[in-house]
Amino acid sequence: MTRPEHLAASGLIAREMEELLDAVMLVAEPVRLTFLWRPRLRDPDDDMVLEAAINGQVDRLVTFNLRHFAAAGAEFGIATCVPGAALAAMEAEA
Fold it and tell me: Maximum Cα–Cα distance for the chain, whole Å?
């Protein structure tokens, strides 16, 4: 999330993103990888994210990389969306 393209998309500067990530870490729950699903995607770094999502039994995977994650996520019943859509969904649920 600190890559230049992510900062540009979010409108945050690096320090603000670091503060956001620190806040996320305060409420995040570690996920034990009990099943290995690799390789599933072209990018090994993407495989790591998908594997954590599967093992964490998430409902939604939030990413700017829909092209790589959408089909693989759907295979496991995981919806994928961009951050803005995820925020809108969370606000609607509240």
Answer: 37
